[in-house]
């Protein structure tokens, strides 16, 4: 199968690099077959995923990296995000009740909630050698 | 558009307006949070947030408002969000926040909501 778009970026695991991630994703979604209504949302989903990794997989003084691989074809837009931080499985976070969240002033779990709302598939794996792998898939609305 | 800029001013009768420009993400949200908490510490709970200059918001940014609105309302105040951009409203819609927050198109309308 041939991919239409294939590109990667690796960043230091720091929130200051989220802007770079969004710019990287913006360039790729713009070239892809993703519907305009989905492009900003996919950028957001990746931002949320990377922000979670920076926050949870690495400690405050721990230096780490995050690698993002994008493979976009005629039927789907796939993103694989890898890091070597501590295990963080998004499946362990339950879906928030927004009214309860507001009532209690809670802010946790929102990023994962958005990822699941936006992406058609969110698959997590912990690989040997201390590597997390998050696979996000968005199916194109009108595949050719 | 700047990465992130924030200004606060009183718009009358104890109502404060925070004007935000740039993006509210996991890197910039803390400054927004500190600004709101500083107003709370000064017993100012009637806050308008001008979002017309915010091009991007993530859950970290939205989380600031989720965390603050309870405190504002418990102190007879509120957080009114003014002129959010389409991008920002999309995120609020995804999070189900559109029904739970007050939105205004301009300062006079926002002030009436307190």
Description:
The complex is a heterodimer of chains A (144) and B (114). By secondary structure, chain A is an alpha+beta fold. Chain A has one domain (5-139): Histidine kinase-like ATPase, C-terminal domain (Heat Shock Protein 90, 2-Layer Sandwich), CATH 3.30.565.10. Helices cover 36% and strands 28% of the residues of chain A. Chain A is built from 4 helices and 5 strands, in the order βααββααββ. Chain A has helices spanning 18-31, 36-57, 98-104, 110-118; strands at 5-12, 65-72, 76-83, 121-127, 131-139. A 5-stranded antiparallel sheet of chain A has the order 1-2-3-5-4, covered by helices on one side. In chain A, strand 2 and strand 3 form a beta hairpin. The longest helix of chain A is centred in the N-terminal third of the chain and has 22 residues, at 36-57. The relative contact order of chain A is 0.21. With 114 residues, chain B is of the alpha/beta class. Chain B has a single domain (4-111), classed as Transcription Regulator spoIIAA. Chain B has helices spanning 29-41, 59-74, 86-95, 107-111, and strands at residues 4-12, 15-24, 46-57, 78-82, 102-104. A 5-stranded mixed sheet of chain B has the order 1-2-3-4-5. In chain B, helix 1 runs parallel beside helix 2. The longest helix of chain B is centred in the middle third of the chain and has 16 residues, at 59-74. Chain B is globular, with a radius of gyration of 13 Å. The termini of chain B are far apart. The mean pLDDT of chain B is 94. The chains are: A alpha+beta (144), B alpha/beta (114). The interface between A and B is medium-sized, with 28 and 26 residues.
């Amino acid at each position: 199968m041939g991919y239409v778009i294939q590109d990667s970026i690796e960043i230091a695991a720091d929130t200051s690099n989220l802007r770079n991630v969004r710019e990287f994703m913006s360039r790729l979604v713009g070239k892809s077959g993703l519907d305009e209504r989905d492009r900003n949302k996919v950028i957001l989903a990746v931002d949320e995923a990377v922000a979670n990794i920076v926050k949870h997989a690495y400690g405050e003084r721990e230096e780490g990296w995050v690698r993002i691989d994008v493979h976009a074809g005629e039927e789907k837009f796939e993103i694989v995000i890898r890091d070597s931080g501590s295990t963080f499985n998004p499946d362990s976070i339950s879906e928030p009740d927004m009214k309860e969240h507001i009532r209690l002033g809670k802010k946790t779990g929102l990023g994962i909630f958005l990822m699941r709302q936006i992406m058609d598939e969110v698959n997590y794996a912990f690989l040997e050698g201390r590597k997390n792998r998050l696979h996000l898939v968005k199916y194109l609305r009108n595949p050719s | 558009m700047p990465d992130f800029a924030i200004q606060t001013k009183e718009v009358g009768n104890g109502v404060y307006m925070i004007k935000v420009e740039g993006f509210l993400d996991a890197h910039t949200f803390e400054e927004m949070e500190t600004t709101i908490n500083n107003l709370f510490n000064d017993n100012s709970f009637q806050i308008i947030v001008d979002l017309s200059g915010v091009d991007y918001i993530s859950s970290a940014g939205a989380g600031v408002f989720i965390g603050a609105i309870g405190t504002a309302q418990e102190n007879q105040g509120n957080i009114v969000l003014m002129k959010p951009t389409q991008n920002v409203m999309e995120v609020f819609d995804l999070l189900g926040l559109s029904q739970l927050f007050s939105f205004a198109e301009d300062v006079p309308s926002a002030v009436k909501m307190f």
